[in-house]
Design a protein that fits this description.
Blueprint lengths: L3 H23 L3 E6 L2 E6 H44 L3 H13 L8
Antiparallel strand pairs: 1-2
C-alpha cells in the first residue's frame, strides 16, 4: 500500500506524462536537428520524447548515486554504533541506548 508521498509522486508523474503527450501530439511537424558533423530531419515529437527520456535517465542516475552514498554512510554509522555498543561494560547501559535509538528511529512510517 502506498503512503501519501508515494501517491502524490505517482499523480505528479502521470500529470507530467499527460502534459508531455499532449505537447508532443500538438507538435508533429518535421524539424532539422543539427549536430557537429551534419544534420537530420525527424518529427518534433521524437525530439521531445527523446529529450524527456534523456532527462529522466540523468535524474535517475543522479538520484541513484545519492542513494548509494547515503546507504554506504548509513552502514558506516551502524558499524560504528555497534563498535561503541560492544565497548560498553554494562549491558543495562547498552539496553538503554538501544531504547533511545528505537525511539528516534525515523525510518518507521507514522501511524
Amino acid at each position: 500500500m502506498l503512503n501519501m508521498k508515494g501517491q502524490r509522486n505517482i499523480i505528479f508523474a502521470l500529470g507530467f506524462a499527460l502534459i508531455v503527450a499532449l505537447f508532443s501530439i500538438a507538435n508533429i511537424q518535421n524539424v532539422k536537428v543539427n549536430y557537429i558533423v551534419g544534420y537530420f530531419e525527424t518529427p518534433l515529437v521524437i525530439v521531445i520524447l527523446g529529450s524527456v527520456t534523456v532527462g529522466a535517465c540523468i535524474v535517475f542516475l543522479v538520484g541513484g548515486w545519492k542513494f548509494v552514498k547515503m546507504r554506504n554512510y548509513t552502514k558506516k554509522l551502524e558499524k560504528e554504533m555497534e563498535q561503541l555498543r560492544s565497548s560498553l561494560p554494562n549491558e543495562e547501559v547498552a539496553a538503554t541506548i538501544e531504547n533511545v535509538v528505537n525511539e528516534n528511529d525515523h525510518s518507521k512510517p507514522l501511524s
